[in-house]
Specification:
The complex is a heterotrimer of chains A (74), B (384) and C (363).
Chain A (H helix, E strand, L loop, with lengths): L2 H23 L4 H22 L7 H12 L4
Helix pairs in contact in A: 1-2
Chain B lengths: L1 H15 L10 E11 L5 E8 L1 H9 L12 E8 L2 H7 L7 E3 L5 E4 L1 H6 L2 H9 L8 E5 L4 H5 L9 H10 L1 H4 L5 E2 H7 L8 E7 L5 E2 L3 E5 L2 E6 L1 H10 L6 E7 L2 E19 L2 E18 L8 H29 L7 H8 L1 H7 L3 H7 L2 E9 L14
Helix pairs in contact in B: 10-11, 12-13
Chain C lengths: L7 H13 L15 H25 L5 H9 L1 H33 L6 H17 L2 H11 L2 H12 L18 H12 L21 H27 L1 H6 L3 H7 L7 H31 L5 H17 L4 H15 L1 H21 L1 H7 L1
Helix pairs in contact in C: 1-6, 1-9, 1-12, 2-8, 2-9, 2-15, 3-4, 4-5, 4-12, 4-13, 5-12, 5-13, 6-12, 7-12, 12-13
The chains are: A mainly alpha (74), B alpha/beta (384), C mainly alpha (363).
Chain lengths: 74, 384, 363
């Protein structure tokens, strides 16, 4: 359990709540809200997974593997 | 808006703050570190810690009677698997956090050096606290703990006293001053073998820093005495000031060297080295003369300069002979010149360089000038 | 679309700060050892050419930003798709800079402060700057970037006594191959990363200066790195440089009597801050353009949250970070930094030849 990570996620949740309030007030289009929600939820879920110690394999590893299978790097 | 301002006021405070603030009274300031190996292959770490409060009381209560005189420093040592392990485990005996950034002197034990100094250097290089400009010494004939336990009269902090004796090498040039960073540069580097100054214990109050420890591939192989050390320092252009005594008819003369420039070169013929050349230019004044002959003719000065050159040459030759024949270790750094200017040759012979270095003939060219004679022109006792 | 305007000087400062960025601490040229200076020169010249290409793309497509260029040259679907890939690329880049920065601070200065905390505090300051607009970032860089060379020179002067001026010899000890490799890595990091400036070029007030400003900043950064390289190698020697985790840190620690190491953190904060701010700005503007939102500020916070999480997620340890920066990054960047821009350049040139008349009328 990584408390620091939780703390940071809490800070970012607070920041996003400000944004969401603005979106509701200005009656933002659905596409914007969908994109916004996608990014924030994705990062919060990832952050949560990292903080409870279940870190999924990272994009760095995916990219490295893809490049390795393509034979670009050894 | 108000919230924004409050957040803005908080943010700068966050940016400056440290997570782990430790007050000065909660740390032990380590001034000297001793590292040695025990018989069973473990590391013994010795720390010398100063007590700022006690320091103050010793300086202010001098002469007063009846005051409790607490010692300004304490020395503690611990045996551990590695240096960091020993330093952490030592807290079983030491009350506060050990703060290493104030380390002035690092003393390595002879046994550790004989078995290889690399393992000690790894920690000193890796740890973020250790000051790269700390002086390193090798204790000869005693353990680092014995050295750190001395109670000098000249300075209340033994580490500062030892550092002082090392720093004044620029006045006498009889011990090689080695800073930690120089070891990092040369360790595992085949161009130049490392050398570290030597320290011995005179008695309970004083130490003696004279001579140099010679290493080969990170292992201690032998020592240079004070005169060989000076020869070595002349070659590597580290002599600032020193006194050289030359024999004269009916007495001796001491020359104060004020300026010296050393240069090295490796001569190549047909793609192979055939000679090591050393050039030293030095300049000096007459400091003392116990002879009887009046020296006023220009030819006298000429012969004097020749004798001085011979004397310096002898010291250099002694150091060279020891490095070449006895220890077979290129402490001077001739390998660096080969590496820089003959990279192809270096690549092939890098691993046997010490043997090649030992087998090469040498050439020493000394040019000395004596400028002034001090406040008197003629000797105190004259020839009739 | 935001109607911000930045001057040529501000663009120059932004670019210089961006290029300096985190390259100070993770420099790919270390792999060329003694011949790093050669790698810097080759990479620097290549980088200048690359920046020239980017500026030419911007000039051939006046008053269009990167998303609009992609769309008009490659069609709507492919253009949007590539633009989305670039959003990922810039977010990724920003998180890498965050991570480099955090690793440096936790290794050298704040050993016990958690990485996450350092990154987050830095991130909040940056999101504030980006939300204030590119003009503000430009003005801040105008003020702060001149500090970078001053600090570099200050550290060098303090070290002048322990220099070995022939330390860079021998030349080409291990052949030309490692030099070319390092030069290429130096080209992709940092020069190729300026592709993100295609989102900022439309804001320049005097468009005819664009190519000159880009080339000038690339050359001056090359000069600065050359200077720093010679300082490090003469003070430390090639062997030591190769061994050290963060080279300039060790160089600054060597100065006798005074600790100038915090100045290095200052340099890093300025360069890294500008780099992250521009990446974040580019990513959020592109995303807003793709989705059709009117203001990029709607996405800054969310993208930043993702950046911070990504920066912690991306590597498990510092060895992965160095391995990635050296081995994977140069190849991963090829399509983004070289391949797609070159296609855009060719397509733009064809278009220009077809419509020379309208183009000259516009100018």
């Amino acid at each position: 359990m990584n408390n620091n990570m939780m703390l940071i996620l809490a800070i970012f949740i607070v920041l996003s709540i400000y944004d969401v309030r603005k979106f509701i007030r200005e009656k933002e289009s659905a596409r914007v809200i969908a994109a916004y929600a996608f990014i924030v939820v994705l990062s919060l879920v990832l952050g949560f997974l990292i903080s409870i110690g279940k870190r999924p394999s990272s994009p760095a590893e995916w990219i490295q593997e893809i490049l390795e299978t393509m034979g670009v790097i050894k | 808006m108000k919230i924004k301002i409050i957040i803005l006021l908080i943010l700068p405070a966050l940016l400056t703050g440290c997570w782990d603030n430790v007050d000065l009274i909660d740390i032990n300031l380590v001034t000297a570190l001793g590292i040695d190996k025990s018989e069973d292959g473990k590391i013994i770490v010795t720390v010398q810690v100063i007590e700022p409060a006690a320091l103050q009381s010793t300086s202010s209560s001098q002469g007063k009677v009846g005051m409790a005189q607490t010692k300004p420093v304490f020395v503690e040592s611990y045996k551990g698997e590695t240096i960091s392990d020993a330093l952490i485990s030592m807290k079983a005996m030491v009350d506060k956090r050990l703060f290493l950034s104030t380390v002035q002197v690092i003393i390595l034990g002879e046994k550790l050096c004989r078995e290889g100094v690399n393992e000690a250097l790894d920690f000193l290089h890796r740890d973020y606290q250790v000051e790269y400009l700390a002086d390193v010494l090798v204790a000869r004939g005693c353990s680092p703990k014995d050295i750190l336990k001395i109670q000098p009269e000249m300075d209340v902090i033994p580490a500062m006293y030892i550092k002082g004796t090392i720093e004044n090498t620029e006045l006498r040039a009889k011990v090689k001053r080695t800073m930690l960073v120089e070891l990092f540069k040369d360790i595992e580097n085949k161009c130049r073998q490392i050398t570290i100054g030597q320290i011995t214990k005179e008695n309970e109050k004083t130490v003696n820093t004279e001579g140099t420890a010679v290493f080969k591939d990170g292992k201690l192989v032998g020592w240079l005495n004070q005169y060989e050390t000076r020869g070595f320092l002349f070659v590597t252009d580290r002599v600032k000031n020193t006194i050289i005594t030359i024999p004269m008819a009916n007495g001796k003369m001491s020359i104060r060297v004020l300026n010296s420039r050393g240069k090295m070169d490796v001569k190549f013929k047909n793609g192979r080295p055939y000679r090591l050349s050393i050039y030293v230019d030095l300049e000096g004044n007459i400091a003392e003369y116990t002879g009887k002959k009046v020296l006023d003719a220009p030819t006298d000065m000429h012969t004097l300069q020749m004798t001085l050159s011979e004397e310096v040459k002898k010291e250099i030759a002694m150091a060279l002979r020891k490095a070449q024949k006895e220890y077979s270790s290129d402490i001077f750094g001739f390998g660096k010149i080969v590496h820089k200017y003959h990279p192809q040759y270096w690549k092939q012979t890098m691993d046997q360089w010490n043997d090649i270095f030992s087998s090469l003939p040498t050439e020493i060219v000394i040019k000395s000038r004596i400028r002034r004679s001090g406040l008197i022109k003629s000797p105190m006792t004259k020839d009739e | 679309m935001e109607k911000a305007r930045i001057s040529s000087l501000q663009l120059f400062m932004l670019m210089t700060g961006f290029l300096f960025g985190s390259t100070l601490i993770i420099n790919p040229i270390i792999n060329a050892k003694n011949d790093g200076w050669l790698a810097i020169i080759i990479g620097g010249i290549g980088g200048t050419l690359l920046l020239w290409v980017y500026a030419t793309i911007a000039l051939l497509n006046p008053s269009k930003n990167f998303v609009e260029i992609l769309r008009s040259r490659l069609g709507k679907v492919l253009g949007n798709l590539l633009a989305l890939l670039y959003v990922w690329y810039f977010t990724h880049l920003a998180s890498l800079v965050f991570r480099n920065f955090g690793s440096f601070i936790t290794t050298t200065t704040y050993l016990y402060t958690p990485l996450e905390v350092i990154i987050t505090i830095f991130a909040i300051v940056i999101v504030y700057a980006v939300n204030s607009g590119i003009e503000v970032v430009g003005r801040v860089s105008e003020l702060l970037v001149p500090v970078i060379p001053v600090i570099a020179v200050l550290i060098s002067i303090s070290l002048v006594t322990i220099h070995d001026f022939t330390a860079f010899l021998p030349v080409l000890e291990n052949g030309i191959q490692p030099v070319i490799k390092a030069a290429y890595a130096f080209l992709t990091f940092p020069f190729g990363e300026t592709i993100s400036f295609l989102m900022i070029f439309p804001h320049l007030n005097k468009r005819k200066n664009l190519r000159r400003v880009s080339a000038l900043s690339a050359l001056s950064v090359t000069g600065l790195f050359l200077f720093i390289f010679f300082r490090d190698i003469t003070a430390l020697g090639s062997h030591f440089i190769y061994q050290a985790t963060f080279v300039p840190h060790i160089t600054s620690v060597l100065i006798p009597g005074i600790n100038l190491e915090p100045l290095l953190d200052v340099n890093l904060l300025i360069g890294g801050g500008i780099k992250i701010a521009i990446c974040l700005y580019a990513a959020s503007t592109m995303l807003a353009n793709i989705i059709g939102a009117d203001d990029y500020r709607k996405f800054t916070t969310s993208l930043l949250t993702f950046c911070v999480v990504l920066s912690i997620w991306i590597y498990e340890n510092i060895f992965e970070m160095f391995n990635w920066a050296e081995k994977v990054w140069p190849y991963y960047s090829i399509p983004f930094q070289i391949f797609i821009p070159l296609i855009l350049l060719v397509l733009s040139l064809i278009k220009k030849n077809k419509t020379t008349l309208t183009d000259s009328a516009e100018q």
